[in-house]
Amino acid sequence: MFENYKVFNYEYAGRPLKVEVGKVAGLANGSCMISYGETVILACATASPKPRDGIDFLPLSVDYDEKLYAVGRIPGSFTRREGRPGEKAILTSRVIDRPIRPLFPKDLRNDVALTLTVMSVDPDCSPEITAMIGASIALSISDIPWNGPIGGAFVGMIGDKFIINPTAEERKESVLELTVAASEKKVVMIEAGAKEVSDEDMYNAIMYAHEEIKKLLVFINEIIATVGKPKFDYPSCELDHDMFDKIFDYCEKAVMEALDTDDKTVRDAKMQPIQDDILEKFSEEYPDLPTILPELIYKIQKKIVRRWLLVDKKRVDGRRMDQIRPLASEVGILPRTHGSGLFTRGQTQVLSVVTLGPMSDAQMLDGLDDEKEKRYMHHYNMPGYSTGEAKALRTPGRREIGHGALAERSLVPVLPSKEEFPYAIRVVSEVVSSNGSTSQGSVCGSTLALMDAGVPIKAPVAGISCGLITAEDGSWDTMIDIQGLEDFYGDMDFKVAGTHKGITSIQMDLKIDGLTPEIIKNALETTHKGRDYIIDEVILKAIPEPRADVGKYAPKMISMKINPDKIREVIGKGGEVIQKITAETNTKIDIEEDGSIFILAVNKEDAYVAKGIIDAIVFEPVEGCCYTGTVTRIIPIGAFVEIAPGKEGLVHISKLDTKRVENVEDVVSVGDKITVKFLGMDEKGRINLSRKDALKED
């Protein structure tokens, strides 16, 4: 039945990689079932037969589709179905999109959909890397025009040793989480999170991954040679070259004058009459001009900006290639929030705001891995007004989620542990003005806000981007701190965040077919100098160190640890005890299974009152020690004394005084405070106390 069914096997990082072709999803342009260990991904690539009209971009969609059956779980939603993609799925889709997109023909306008369905997950074999390899194979063996293949690798680092595709246990020990995608000759994509890893180690890890990917590509090329289809022909959507040259010659000087400013608003205002003039002069000769004008203007501006950068070493705003835009920073901008910081770089401005809460406010996760919650949440918003556009607010898109996750990854390595700082932390980065590199502006603004909030971060983190311009002859140059136009018309956005000590995150976006080792090394050196300057000259001058305590309006937190066997007594029947404590002390109390207790209150004194009550509840008297307690009731044979809340014992009449006692009331009354000695527990677990023995000690 499956006459075209073929199986290809390879050993990747010591585990079996199997690719099955010709059995499932036969109607897709290209498909494969790829297994790595016991991780299984169905990768399918499809394309529309005709190009989409009226667009100037490739309509590519990449969907990494997580199915909870892959880990043997039923979704927890009301409908018991998977809903919209989770954050991890969106980030993985973006990681796979970035190395694949630049390798499509620039003039292809057919819709292309890449669907990567996670069908089984082996914790030791990354489904993300498996999906990236599957995507490359599905596209390569399809008839869709694409200049692949690529391979992918995940690199960990334990000690001074690099590990390709580390297991789940190895990932816990690793100080590096590096994903690399590459072709045979060049690195196409880099995504990394790290615990202050040096530039040298990061570079060596990237090169180590590339060597492994080269071996993998030999295997992929064997699959392509065996089952690959010829690529289909498509109508080129390239602009007419004669038309472009004619219009470029007409408006070149005017566009150069319009672009030659550091003010985005001025530039846009100068460009509008130029566009109107082009339409008026050439619409009759080129009837399709109104439709293609946006792409035409884009290419005119691109030609000018790239020529400036390559030939004249001139940047749009007049800076040198190694010069950062004017910088400014402030803290304590918002009076009632727990912490805030405003970071300004040229016309890019980010206001980051910190909110502190109890550990119960940590985000619950429901993904395919073992991570169930995260205490640090970073959200990024970029409203329309930040770019001068009249757009209504919308829910966060993939870009916003991606940039928030990048800032989060940049800052997690310097956060205090839960034991050092028992708070859930949320940071929101509001982009109030955008002209390039807002994600790295979010990192800088959030460092300011965290320090303003009194979060004892280990070191300040700064982020900056490096751009690239390449020529047809192979020459290239990099530039620090790219603004919007340089991002649009350049070849690379190499974003690096870190401390003085080392790198905490990298994200690289490309518009070309890859980077050479020399470009990567240059970008790492350039960004290191940039972030050191920002930390020393901007961040630390605004706030030299984290504030000694959390702010006036932030909740105050204290923590304690009790015997887990005592948790039931602290909570009480139906939560009665804990509810009474929180009501009486105006606190919020979180109790974990290991006996950790976190007490949160606006006033620290209230938290200490609650702690005192809990201490009393879990109190265990020590035999032979004396305690002061309250007489609660009297019976003919003695008096009951409460030495701690819920801890009541009997002082027998013979133990009330050093002399003989006829009536208990002759010595004590209800409500009296007396000192007693703990004699131990009787055979029924009751507390035995003695006032006589306590008096003798006095």
Can you walk me through this structure?
This protein is 32% helix and 29% strand. By secondary structure, the chain is an alpha+beta fold. The protein folds into 5 domains: 6-227, Ribosomal Protein S5, domain 2 (2-Layer Sandwich); 241-312, Arc Repressor Mutant, subunit A (Orthogonal Bundle); 327-542, GHMP Kinase, N-terminal domain (Ribosomal Protein S5, domain 2, 2-Layer Sandwich), CATH 3.30.230; 556-617, K Homology domain, type 1 (Ribosomal Protein S8, Chain: A, domain 1, 2-Layer Sandwich), CATH 3.30.1370.10; 626-697, OB fold (Dihydrolipoamide Acetyltransferase, E2P). An 8-stranded antiparallel sheet has the order 8-7-9-10-21-20-18-19, sandwiched between helices. A 6-stranded mixed sheet has the order 1-2-3-4-6-5. Strands 11-12-13-17-16 form a 5-stranded mixed sheet. A hairpin with a 2-residue loop joins strand 25 (626-635) and strand 26. Helix 1 packs across helix 8 and helix 5 (241-259) runs antiparallel to helix 6. The protein is elongated, with a radius of gyration of 33 Å.
